[in-house]
Amino acid sequence: MLWNLLALRQIGQRTISTASRRHFKNKVPEKQKLFQEDDEIPLYLKGGVADALLYRATMILTVGGTAYAIYELAVASFPKKQE
Amino acid sequence: MTHQSHAYHMVKPSPWPLTGALSALLMTSGLAMWFHFHSMTLLMLGLLTNTLTMYQWWRDVTRESTYQGHHTPPVQKGLRYGMILFITSEVFFFAGFFWAFYHSSLAPTPQLGGHWPPTGITPLNPLEVPLLNTSVLLASGVSITWAHHSLMENNRNQMIQALLITILLGLYFTLLQASEYFESPFTISDGIYGSTFFMATGFHGLHVIIGSTFLTICFIRQLMFHFTSKHHFGFEAAAWYWHFVDVVWLFLYISIYWWG
């Protein structure tokens, strides 16, 4: 990625225009259209399938983790008797 | 479709405050499990869910601003106030560590030998790596200002270059400081000198890493054409934070490395 940027720099020094390069096209207008669609999908899911997967993973880990933390608390609250 | 008749941003419901709060629970209980029961599972889970929350929360802020246009001038003004207040709170956070340092170093107890640095401590030479670190951060302050002006003047390539230089300098500082930590003749458990030195410089180092991360996000956003010459508050917030980190280092250098 770094040598791409160095190449970018050389191109910038040669050409006068600041038009989009080979590697980075301005996709902001497309994104604006996607996220302004009037489809009632919440923002955190509006990007597509990846959003839903990431959301689900985060929820499962946090809620599951909380349950595990409460379990460990319960275990720690009743110390084992030494014989 | 109904439209609002005001310029403010009424944020839509989001799951990230909940997951953030739960991740904080997992991190804190995880610390307790690590300290007392030698298990790192909860802590790792907490760090992971915290990272996931931060990523998605700030991703959504970018969607609300760059993609949906919610950051009108009054909204941006509020964000400016918010960032200033946050940085101010961080100033007070560091003030505590400086207080602790000055409390102990201005009146060294007989147990320390009645002088500062205390008996048995060989402090680091301020004219060696610490001076280099100072020049690295000062230079990064210059390069980030260059990046900002390039951005305001619509000079895309120069902005990218200057921001990259800033990030690399930040990384260089972190590596140098890590090497200093490894080579240091004293540790955090070497009395009050070690405690004040590593608490203050340690939290500073953490803030350098946070600042470098923030700058890297800005770098990626600049590559993706998110910033315009007139509207780039995310970058300005990162720049403010970076200058704050630089100033804290200058105070650290003068107080702990040089005078101390």
Automatic annotation (TrEMBL), chain A:
CDD domains: Cyt_c_Oxidase_VIIa
Gene3D superfamilies: Cytochrome c oxidase, subunit VIIa
GO cellular component: mitochondrial inner membrane; respiratory chain complex IV
Homology family: Belongs to the cytochrome c oxidase VIIa family.
Protein name per UniProt: Cytochrome c oxidase subunit 7A2, mitochondrial
Regions crossing the membrane: 53-71
Annotated metabolic or biological route of this protein: Energy metabolism; oxidative phosphorylation
Oxidoreductase listed as a keyword: yes
Keywords (A to Z) from UniProt: Acetylation, Membrane, Mitochondrion, Mitochondrion inner membrane, Oxidoreductase, Transit peptide, Transmembrane, Transmembrane helix
Presence of the UniProt keyword Signal in the record: no
BP-aspect Gene Ontology terms: mitochondrial electron transport, cytochrome c to oxygen
Domain of life the protein comes from: Eukaryota
InterPro entries referenced in this protein's UniProt entry, alphabetically: COX7a (IPR039297), Cyt_c_oxidase_su7a_sf (IPR036539), Cytc_oxidase_su7a_met (IPR003177)
Location of the protein in the cell: Mitochondrion inner membrane
Membrane topology, record value: Single-pass membrane protein
Lineage: Eukaryota, Metazoa, Chordata, Craniata, Vertebrata
GO molecular function per UniProt: oxidoreductase activity
Cited SUPFAM superfamilies: Mitochondrial cytochrome c oxidase subunit VIIa (SSF81419)
Automatic annotation (TrEMBL), chain B:
GO biological process: aerobic electron transport chain
Domain Heme-copper oxidase subunit III family profile residue range list: 4-260
Keyword Transmembrane: yes
Annotated InterPro entries: Cyt_c/ubiquinol_Oxase_su3 (IPR024791), Cyt_c_oxase_su3_dom (IPR033945), Cyt_c_oxidase-like_su3 (IPR000298), Cyt_c_oxidase_su3-like_sf (IPR035973), Cyt_c_oxidase_su3_a-hlx (IPR013833)
UniProt keyword annotation of Nucleus present: no
Highest taxon above the source species: Eukaryota
Location relative to the cell: Mitochondrion inner membrane
SUPFAM superfamilies, sorted: Cytochrome c oxidase subunit III-like
Membrane topology value: Multi-pass membrane protein
GO CC term (a single one): respiratory chain complex IV
Pfam families cross-referenced by the UniProt entry: COX3 (PF00510)
An example Gene Ontology molecular-function term: cytochrome-c oxidase activity
Keywords: Membrane, Mitochondrion, Mitochondrion inner membrane, Translocase, Transmembrane, Transmembrane helix
Record-annotated membrane-spanning stretches: 16-35, 41-58, 79-102, 159-177, 197-220, 240-259
Reaction equations catalysed: 4 Fe(II)-[cytochrome c] + O2 + 8 H(+)(in) = 4 Fe(III)-[cytochrome c] + 2 H2O + 4 H(+)(out)
Role played: Component of the cytochrome c oxidase, the last enzyme in the mitochondrial electron transport chain which drives oxidative phosphorylation. The respiratory chain contains 3 multisubunit complexes succinate dehydrogenase (complex II, CII), ubiquinol-cytochrome c oxidoreductase (cytochrome b-c1 complex, complex III, CIII) and cytochrome c oxidase (complex IV, CIV), that cooperate to transfer electrons derived from NADH and succinate to molecular oxygen, creating an electrochemical gradient over the inner membrane that drives transmembrane transport and the ATP synthase.
UniProt similarity note: Belongs to the cytochrome c oxidase subunit 3 family.
Protein name: Cytochrome c oxidase subunit 3
Biological source species: Homo sapiens
Lineage start: Eukaryota, Metazoa, Chordata, Craniata, Vertebrata
